[in-house]
Write a structure and sequence with these properties.
- The chain has 310 residues and is of the alpha/beta class.
- The protein folds into two domains: 139 residues, Nucleotidyltransferase, domain 5 (2-Layer Sandwich); 165 residues, ATPase, nucleotide binding domain (Nucleotidyltransferase, domain 5), CATH 3.30.420.
- Helices cover 41% and strands 19% of the residues.
- A five-stranded mixed β-sheet has the order 3-2-1-4-5, with helices on both faces. Strands 8-7-6-9-10 form a five-stranded mixed β-sheet, with helices on both faces.
- The longest helix is centred in the last third of the chain and has 25 residues.
- The two termini are 26 Å apart.
Length: 310
């Protein structure tokens, strides 16, 4: 029996799904982040994350090494060029496609149909594809120069607000106390310097956006403004892509993908600025759909997708 493999390799986690010839998911695995491969340690982490996920999924599917698939698609945060060759150390495939995470997120979000989505995860990006295969993106510039509305940016804005309060030139906000109590830092300046160290990788900083959500739900005006601004930025990304791919008068809904959209204020404000909808599937399932496509079976529709990939 032939099998198909989809991998979602992100800044926060990695997921692998294996499907049978009929499109049924028969195995899945999950692991840590795998977005960087520069340097011996990063390379080892990448191989461990991907290899572990694939082995978990293969074990559930009843497969034994060496692993070979009829089709395989892998989508990676931070691009694919520096990662594709490493996959040969883990598995073989008759048809292999390695791409960026936004493409598999779009395929999953639309169930393989034309459409567009906005990712609000650790970072942010909008990506769309029409019926001819034309693709357009906006954002995705990374945490230094972009990623507006993503989790890292939300926490960054919260830290800035706390610093302004601490130095006496910004309004009072509960964000200062929440950030300090959740990290054990002595003051915000101390926390700022900790954020520059390996003690706080980007995905961990992004996860602290939950503190901003908590403050906003308690009525903190500064936190509310930060989240409203995040939603506006994400909607602007989505509108820019939609206008190019489908036209300015289009009402094609934007699929919302990523943890930032779990924040009620972000979801609400986003929906007031652009037509929105829930994703059909999450990125790992999109990668599996692409695995069937590159193997010459674009008609396959998947089933048995685990809840965490819906």
């Amino acid at each position: 029996m032939t099998y198909y493999l989809g991998i979602d390799g992100g800044q926060s986690s990695t997921t692998a799904l294996i499907g049978d010839p009929e499109g049924r998911v028969v195995g899945y695995g999950r692991g840590g982040p795998c977005n960087h491969v520069t340097g011996p340690e990063a390379r080892t982490k990448f191989l461990t994350a991907i290899g572990g996920c694939v082995r978990q999924a293969a074990e559930q599917a009843g497969l034994t090494a060496p692993f070979r698939f009829a089709g395989a698609c892998s989508g990676f945060s931070g691009g694919a060029k520096d990662k594709a060759y490493l996959l040969d150390e883990i598995f073989a495939a008759d048809a292999k496609y390695v791409t960026h995470d936004a493409e598999i997120a779009l395929v999953g979000a639309t169930g393989g149909e034309p459409g567009l989505m906005v990712i609000g995860g650790t970072g942010s990006i909008a990506f769309g594809r029409d019926a001819t295969g034309k693709t357009v993106r906006a954002g995705g510039w990374g945490y230094v120069f972009g990623d507006e509305g993503g989790g890292f940016d939300v926490t960054r804005q919260a830290l800035r607000a706390a610093l302004r309060m601490e130095e006496g030139w910004g309004p009072a906000t509960s964000l200062r106390e929440k950030l300090l109590s959740s990290t054990g830092a002595s003051d915000v300046n101390d926390l700022l310097h900790r954020f520059y160290t390996p003690e706080f990788p980007r995905q961990q900083i992004a996860a602290m956006s939950r503190q901003v959500d908590e403050a906003a739900r308690e009525g903190d005006a500064v936190a509310i403004r930060i989240l409203q601004s995040a939603a506006t930025s994400l909607a602007d990304y989505g509108r820019a892509v939609r206008d190019v791919v489908f036209g300015a008068d289009s009402t094609v809904p934007v699929r919302m993908v990523g943890g930032v959209f779990q924040i009620e204020i972000v979801r609400t404000v986003f929906a007031t600025r652009i037509e929105s909808a829930e994703p059909v599937y999450l990125p790992a399932a999109g990668a599996l759909l692409e695995a069937y496509r590159v193997a010459g079976r674009p008609e396959v529709r998947i089933s048995g997708v685990p809840e965490f990939s819906k």
